[in-house]
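Severity: low
Component: inverse-folding endpoint
Summary: output formatting inconsistent between runs
Steps to reproduce: submit the following structure tokens with default settings.
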């Protein structure tokens, strides 16, 4: 069994000749988890739709929500490219700055113009966050030679985030009973803390490689030609739509259940916060059983089972207006929480680091664009009441699930677990590899005796890599020169 004796160089080469110390990268693992806590403190989320309905009515509230999603559509992919090519840490700091502005305007502003500006800033934050936080985590572990820990560590981080979301949602519901603006004041404080934590994160090392937005986007789109990645993108798109439909319509649905007027949410505001807290807690608990479920059901069945959860929720809400639906609503975030752990790990192992965040952002963009269209459709065809809107939402949700389930059957050799093969095509690049010598598995010529972990510069001709991966993270790499 190999043992790391010493670090020859306590730094890992970074971009443009810089160096990122191993110690700072290890610190990233702590600060990343700390960053997830204020990022998950969404005091405003359970009651924002109640706020919009109370101020502007249901039809206008749906339109205002579509402003948010259209803005995300515009910024989603450029923000992923900024993260991939410029800086992941800078992108995360911009997230906090945008949210500070958004929550300030929601709290202190008035009128539709202020809300539109707040929605735009809120969208900027979520567009920049999309794909950046998880790729920062993956890149850090990869640079430390610990990428096989990603799924377990990300699952733990998401559990912490969801527990914070649960507490903040419950607190936000209580604050909304007093004033629908107060949750934004609490969220503003969390965004300030988030900015302070983001400033402690260090940029993972990256190769100095040329790249332009158009060419990088073309490379990212080509990844969709891989059957599994293409289906995964379709799956993410459909679930963004269905999960958001299940969440967006909960607040007005509860208003109907409790028979409270839109301009006086009262008990429905508190119950919305409490339900959001339960939803986040259930999602966090389900993450603890994700790997056993994966082994028992297989990856394809797990994906489709998770996707069915929000479809059932929307369908039952459309069929009946009753308190008995509340226990079912507690499972609303299960699918999203599981996907946030499984999908980035699959993408990270199949897509090179210069395109990971862009790929995740592209799939998110397509999903949000589709959802923005769904919101506009509900606003136009929902008749201005929640019952008609839920009926249309149920039709959309069922149709998307059937389409995704049918498409999955056409994927050749769909893995039964988190086991996959992938190919990357690389241009001629200079790579510095961190090697840990154990039992002589690496054969390099040195003018002096070397032990421990150190870097070797390698120049590769264009090469195609085929990587079979298994759940226990053993890696077997076959290289065929092109």
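Observed output (run 2 of 3):
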């Amino acid at each position: 069994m190999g043992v790391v004796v010493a670090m020859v160089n306590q730094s890992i080469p970074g971009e443009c000749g810089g160096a990122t110390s191993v110690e700072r990268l290890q610190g990233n693992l702590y600060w990343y988890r700390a960053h997830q806590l204020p990022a998950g403190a969404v005091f405003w989320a359970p009651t924002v739709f109640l706020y919009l309905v109370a101020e502007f009515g249901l039809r206008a509230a749906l339109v205002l929500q579509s402003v948010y999603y259209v803005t995300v559509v515009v910024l989603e992919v450029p923000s992923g490219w900024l993260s991939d090519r410029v800086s992941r840490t800078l992108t995360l700091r911009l997230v906090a700055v945008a949210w500070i502005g958004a929550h300030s305007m929601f709290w202190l502003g008035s009128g539709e113009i202020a809300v539109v500006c707040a929605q735009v800033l809120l969208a900027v934050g979520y567009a920049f966050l999309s794909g950046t936080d998880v790729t920062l985590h993956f890149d850090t572990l990869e640079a430390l030679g610990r990428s096989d820990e990603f799924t377990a560590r990300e699952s733990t981080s998401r559990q912490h985030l969801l527990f914070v979301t649960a507490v903040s949602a419950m607190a936000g519901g209580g604050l909304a009973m007093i004033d629908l603006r107060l949750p934004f004041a609490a969220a503003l404080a969390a965004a300030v803390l988030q900015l302070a934590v983001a400033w402690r994160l260090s940029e993972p090392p990256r190769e100095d490689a040329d790249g332009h937005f158009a060419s990088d986007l073309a490379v990212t789109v080509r990844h969709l030609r891989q059957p599994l990645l293409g289906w995964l993108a379709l799956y993410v798109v459909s679930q963004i739509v269905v999960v958001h439909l299940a969440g967006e319509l909960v607040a007005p649905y509860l208003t109907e259940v409790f028979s409270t007027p839109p301009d006086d949410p009262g008990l429905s505001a508190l119950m919305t916060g409490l339900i959001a807290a339960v939803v986040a807690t259930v999602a966090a608990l389900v993450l603890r059983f994700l790997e056993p479920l994966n082994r028992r059901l297989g990856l394809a069945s797990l994906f489709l089972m998770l996707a069915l959860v929000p479809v059932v929720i929307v369908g039952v809400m459309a069929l009946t207006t009753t308190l008995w639906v509340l226990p079912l609503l507690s499972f609303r975030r299960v699918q999203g929480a599981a996907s946030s752990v499984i999908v980035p790990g699959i993408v990270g192992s199949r897509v090179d680091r210069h395109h990971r965040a862009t790929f995740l952002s592209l799939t998110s963009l397509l999903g949000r664009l589709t959802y923005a269209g769904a919101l506009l459709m509900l606003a136009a065809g929902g008749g201005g009441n929640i019952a008609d809107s839920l009926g249309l939402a149920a039709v959309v949700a069922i149709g998307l699930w059937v389409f995704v389930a049918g498409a999955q059957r056409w994927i050749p050799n769909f893995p039964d677990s988190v086991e996959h093969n992938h190919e990357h095509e690389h241009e001629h690049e200079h790579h510095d590899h961190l090697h840990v010598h154990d039992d002589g598995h690496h054969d390099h010529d040195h003018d002096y005796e070397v032990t421990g972990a150190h870097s070797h510069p390698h120049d590769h001709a264009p090469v195609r890599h085929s990587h079979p991966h298994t759940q226990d993270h053993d890696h077997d790499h076959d290289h065929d020169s092109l």
